[in-house]
Amino acid sequence: MMLTKKEPETFTYEEAAAYIEEIPKFTKKHTLEHTKTFLKRLGNPAADRKIVHVAGTNGKGSVCAYLQAILMAEGKRTGFFTSPHLVSVNERIRVDNIQIDNETFLKVFRKVLKIVRQMVEDGIEHPSYFEFLFGMGMTAFAETDVEYIILETGLGGRLDATNAIDNPALAIITSISLDHTAILGDTIEKIAGEKAGIIKPGVPVLFDGSSKKAAEVIKAKASELGVSCREVTKNAYEIQEVHRKYIAFSRRSAYDKDVIFQVPMCGCYQAMNAELALEALEYLLAGEEIHMDRWKEALAELHWEGRMERVGAHITVDGAHNPGAMEAFVESVKALDESERGEMVLLFSAVSDKKYDQMIEYLCENLDVKAYVVTQIEDERGVPAEKLADVFRRYTDRPVYCKERLEDAVRTAMNERGETGEIYCLGSLYLVGMMKKLLAGGAIDA
Question: Which pTM does this prediction carry?
Answer without folding.
Answer: 0.84
